[in-house]
Amino acid sequence: MRYGDFTPYDLVLLLQGLGVSVALFVSTTLIGLVIGTLWAVIRFYRVPVLSQVVAFVAELLKNSPVLVQLFLVFFGLPAFLKINVTPTTAAVITLSGNSAAFIYVIAVSAIESVGRDQLEAARVFGLSRWQILRRVIAPQAAAFAIGPLTGLLVNQLQVTSLISVIGVMDLTKVGNILNLRTLKPFLVWTAVGVLYYLTAKLVAHAGARFEKRLRAHTAWKGL
Amino acid sequence: MKFDLSILAKHIPFLLEGAWLTFQACLLAVIGSLVVGLLVAAARTSASPLLNRLSAIYVDIFRNIPFIVQLFFFYFGLPEIGIYIDAFTTGVIAMSVAGGAFTSDVIRSGILAIDPGIIEAAQVSGLRKSTILRKIVMPIALRASVRPLGSVFINLILTSSILSTITLNELTGSAKIVASQTFRPFEVYFVLLVAYAALTWFVSILISMLHRYLNRNQAEGAV
């Protein structure tokens, strides 16, 4: 006897998958933000050798399929270094690195968007290098970067679906399981698609709200 | 373990076979997404509210749902409604439909950037609507959007690696086979990563050349 019908538990399974997807998305985004910004700061200070290495690695990560990066970390690293890599670890490493590479590009152009004259003025006032970065560049660069960053995050959310291929129980993997059990592809994949769609819209909406707040100081307040 | 690339030598013909399949799929998908993109962009910028709305919904849906979910939707869903096609055709269709959404957005912004005076001049010259679209609007819009179109197509090449999940042995799929035959996943996937990066780099150079060729008559400085 086959259990081919949908059960109420399937809904729980779908939501569980969504939870895994969102959790991995949020954590890898945060890690990617830290690493990407760090790379951009390295470039900003023109650290010799390191800044070239960073630029090269970012270029390599941006120009290769995430699936291949995932296979390299999940299948390649354990065989090469004789270590154990669980699917989740591989997913976190790959997605963080991938996000970092794209965030690096955004952060670099955001830092460059702050005019040189402002830096000179800040230096004349006697601000230290750290103070310039923290008080002058960071607030303006953040307001500049938030738009492209939102676009990137909507994209990265979709990239997380690839980790189902190495066996992480995310939304796509749950969809795959339900599809094979119920053999109702249209229903299952539509449900999965709708969940991804709503999450993407939520991310875009949150990004727009946040941008408004960061740009509040430039908004017209009336005379 | 030692990093040894020489073991890959005898698998190169097999990998090249996969690369050839990737090339075919990408070429067809680029053509397909260009056709879809042109039609949708024309609908998106047309005066008809219905076409406008429909095309906006299409773009919104296919941009916000992960490609792998769309691919599974087609791969498992089409046989359900009695359409039996092979994995290659399914992959090309899915890539064309998904790529078409991104392409149409690029072309649409190219169309919106056209000076309204040009279109008005065409209208008062008594040209028919279809002639204006074919001979005036599209050439200008396409010429201006070669670069962004190029990055969409590069993304499409990277996306094509996902086709390996529906049993299609393109470059990534055949690399998977080689990795399991040689037990050297690290070397295989590392080479694959570099190969994809080199491929996209080469394509981006071609796109720059095409851009310069098509815009050779533009004014100085209007790169």
Automatic annotation (TrEMBL), chain A:
The keyword Endoplasmic reticulum does not apply. Belongs to the binding-protein-dependent transport system permease family. HisMQ subfamily. One of its GO terms (molecular function) is transmembrane transporter activity. The chain crosses the membrane at residues 20-45, 91-111, 186-204. The keyword Transport applies. It comes from the Bacteria. Its main location: membrane. Keywords: Cell membrane, Membrane, Transmembrane, Transmembrane helix, Transport. SUPFAM superfamilies: MetI-like. InterPro entries: AA_ABC_transptr_permease_3TM (IPR010065), ArtM/GltK/GlnP/TcyL/YhdX-like (IPR043429), MetI-like (IPR000515), MetI-like_sf (IPR035906). It is a multi-pass membrane protein. Gene3D superfamilies: MetI-like. GO terms for biological process: amino acid transport. This is Amino acid ABC transporter permease. One of its GO terms (cellular component) is ATP-binding cassette (ABC) transporter complex. Signal peptide: none annotated. Residues 18-207 form the ABC transmembrane type-1 domain. PANTHER family: BLR6398 PROTEIN, MEMBRANE COMPONENT OF AMINO ACID ABC TRANSPORTER. It is found in: Cell inner membrane; Cell membrane.
UniProtKB/TrEMBL annotation, chain B:
GO terms for biological process: amino acid transport. Keywords: Amino-acid transport, Cell membrane, Membrane, Transmembrane, Transmembrane helix, Transport. Its main location: membrane. The chain crosses the membrane at residues 20-43, 55-75, 81-102, 148-168, 188-210. GO terms for molecular function: transmembrane transporter activity. Belongs to the binding-protein-dependent transport system permease family. HisMQ subfamily. Pfam families: BPD_transp_1. It is a multi-pass membrane protein. It comes from Pseudaminobacter soli (ex Li et al. 2025). This is Amino acid ABC transporter permease. The lineage of its organism: Bacteria, Pseudomonadati, Pseudomonadota, Alphaproteobacteria, Hyphomicrobiales.
